[in-house]
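Narrative of activities, Objective 1.

The group set out to show that a structural description can be obtained from nothing but a protein's sequence at a throughput compatible with the screening campaign. Below is one input-output pair from the validation batch, recorded exactly as produced.
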Amino acid sequence: MRLASRASAWACWWLGLGAAGITCAQTMPDAPTPEILEVRINGQSQSSPRPLLRRGAQWLAAASDLEAWRLVKPATPALHREGSDYYDLRALPGAQVRLDEGTQSLELTVPAEAFASGTVQANASDRPPLSPSAFGAFLNYDLALQHDREGTRASGYFDAAASGEWGLAGTSFVVGQSAFGGRGATRLDSYFRRDDPARLTRLTVGDSVTQAAAWSTPFRFGGVQFGTRFGLQPGYISYPMPTLRGGAAVPSAVEVYVNDTLRYQRRVDAGPFAISDVPVLTGAGEMRFAVTDALGVQRTVTTPYYVSSNLLRTGLSDYSLEAGWTRLRYGERSFDYGPPFVAGTWRYGVNDGVTVEARGEASARSQTAGAGVTWVWGTVGEFSLHGAASRSRDGGTGRLWRAAYTRTSDEWNFSVSRQVASRGFTQIAWHDSPVHTNAQTQVFAGRSLGRYGTLGASHTQLRYNTGEHIGVTTASWSIGVGGNAWLGTYVARTRQDGQRPTTSVGVSLTFALGERRHASLSLQRETGGRQSAVAEVMQQPPGDMGWGYRLRAAGGENARSEAAVDWRGRYGMFSAEAARAQGQTAVRLRASGAVGFAGGLGFATRQSDDAFALVTVPGAANVKVYRENQPWTTTDSEGRAVVSGLRAYEPNHISIDNADLPIEAQVRSDALRVVPRYKGVAQASFDIARDTVANVTVLLPDGSPLPPGIDVARPARGTSLLSGFNGLVSVDDPQPRENFEARWKGGHCRFTLGAPDRAAGALPSMGPYRCEPVSSPAR
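Output recorded for this entry:
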């Protein structure tokens, strides 16, 4: 006990008890005695010896020490002294305390529950900020010229947009004869859009499409729309993900397996832990995590899960508010709008297993409101119930209900839904539609057979407001053959009021003939002996530049032959097609691409529906620019280029080739991460520094050149250079009156630069300068 008594005496003075006029000899038998001991928790040494208080059988530790050790403090402190609370270590749950006199250490053994819990995100990723935007405008075009028995016709689709930091304004239109039957020029959509990725919201003024509930039908309109857009943060997960909970008595390594595939691993501190946002596929599955401590002891825990993307995280809302005028005869009329309306949809995650939903819409002709709930019940699957009611201008009322169940897993997929609307039910999307569905039933089942392929079966029953009924039942089986071929078969039976049921049977075989080439053969036979056969060979053009083609021949009732050739170039895509059917021949030429203007630079590129980047390499012409490590374009005479096809709101990597830069140019980084807006032009400016490098001629005092290989020091910068032949020394960024020293075996001299001639270019010649000898200090 002599060592303990000596440590106690030192601890007494360390805690300041001596200064208070209290000595260890004066303390009462039950008074706390200070001792400085090494603390070991579950065999793990803590950072440094700590002062503890000993009172009888109690060992008391300060609250700050418990926090540093990540131990949960007992409910009540055992002692309060000099503004600090002290807690009895024996009061920790499951604690065992033992003093080792020989090593002056305190051994504390506690279970994992005694530590404070920690939470880590398995799928945590930083959200890069948006890149600065430049003003830009572009026009996507898709032109077609067709000749057949009826003559020659030309048509085109155009999509124009202008963007900047202020947002995006765009319009689209078709010229010629559209697929909707219109002729001449017909406007499609015109809008102004402002996205806020930080708040996950989008404002649209102009033409848009309403956000629908599970039971409602979306429709086009012109007006204002504001609501949530989770896609503005790619990778953002709005639905609940499983959380793994466990515990470790000592720091350990954790590995998480999803369906026997390693998805995540890291080290965790001692105590309870929770790992959230483990990357899993939606549907049913099984997670297993293994906890391995420093001694190699491993514990494994397995838990099932079910994840549905139709749910929202606890407390998360998804909403959309719309007001304006319904769009009529879209694609046929440019400015045909119906009566005004207002509508709104709201979804909310009550908890990680339940999401509620509500929608309302109103116009002068009708008012409709509905609500619903979607929930996941353990690993059984996803359930949903919805109901709605409507009232029309003529006083009629109606109701609608919907019920659905879905379960998805690696082996089985099953879904069933039933939706029924009464005769008087209506909604805005049905106002100008003569035919709509009043009732529908859908059932689907799929089974994975592993190497024996996949089975599927479905049944759909529809009832229209006209009273007509249609039912379709299908069954299919597909399997991989030989590693590069796929065989598929199906049978389908269709029933329709007033017509005889029809049955069709088909089989198809597809071969992969390379990275971009494949061939297929399909056969089909229908009720009544009708049959057809189709053979096709296709090669996709490469992703950068090159040719592609397609040959197709169909026999039987729909006999037809087709041939097409495609060229994908830097500035667009071009194709020529020819077809012959029923003794008639038709040919068509197509061209698609985009032209635009960004930051004062005009450009032509392939058609792009996403985003661009304005690349600037100051003063560096003909520098190769790469997109995702693929060569894309080169800079113009001013060092500018436009890169198309970027992913909006995602990091895109743009780089340049250092070998193309002038010799005097230095780039801080040859790669940039660019995050553009939707259809925006992000600025990607490379930081180029241009240093002058002078060829300095240095002569020795006798007039001979400084020998090669001599170390030339720059004392002002703490660097050194190496002399070359003929007394030449390459000096970067030379400064007037800068001193240099040359040292070699048996010699030491010093010279001073004059003013460099900046007008001489990037590689001026300076000198000659005489290197004056420096005498060695006396020893």
